[in-house]
């Protein structure tokens, strides 16, 4: 039994910019640029990654499925492309950019996916092969949760040395 409901996914996708604004807005630079060590991302970098995905991945793949089905393979997504960007934009600028592009993408998605049958359309992923629209949209939604959790984990670890003996009770600070 499929649990995916487009309206639920749209609601979650619409809320992510607000969640990130509430979580990150107004924090000092040391919080938004903190990371978990070498080759890990700060909240600032995660936000850059989310923006890059909005511009070059999710909706483009939706449109590829609609226009070409599985006859055209999705373009590969460079998950680290955002790291090439200079950090010239302030966090409030990135939060505004993410909110604007996500709102536009959600509105466009609502016009592209009209019926439940659209969720069964198939596309071709460069690594996974045949995927469904339902899988793509579910992944987009869970991708948001993944990166919200990542941001929260990084922020929790910022105080890891400050919590003293309570560290033993804080799962977010435990090694995987």
Automatic annotation (TrEMBL):
Signal peptide: none annotated. Residues 13-151 form the DinB-like domain. InterPro entries: DinB-like, DinB/YfiT-like. It holds the Pfam family DinB_2. This is DinB family protein. The lineage of its organism: Bacteria, Bacillati, Bacillota, Bacilli, Bacillales.
């Amino acid at each position: 039994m499929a649990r995916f409901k487009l309206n639920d996914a749209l609601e979650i996708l619409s809320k992510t910019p607000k969640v990130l604004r509430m979580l990150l807005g107004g924090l000092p630079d040391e919080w938004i640029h903190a990371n978990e060590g070498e080759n890990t991302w700060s909240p600032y970098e995660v936000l850059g990654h989310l923006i890059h995905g909005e511009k070059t991945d999710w909706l483009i793949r939706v449109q590829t499925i609609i226009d070409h089905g599985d006859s055209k393979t999705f373009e590969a997504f460079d998950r680290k492309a955002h790291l090439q960007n200079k950090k010239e934009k302030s966090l409030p600028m990135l939060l505004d950019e993410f909110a604007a592009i996500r709102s536009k993408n959600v509105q466009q998605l609502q016009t592209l996916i009209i019926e439940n049958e659209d969720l069964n359309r198939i596309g071709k992923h460069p690594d996974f092969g045949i995927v469904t629209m339902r899988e793509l949209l579910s992944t987009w939604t869970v991708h948001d949760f993944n990166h919200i959790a990542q941001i929260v984990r990084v922020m929790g670890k910022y105080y890891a040395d400050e919590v003293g003996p309570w560290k033993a009770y804080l799962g977010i600070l435990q090694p995987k």
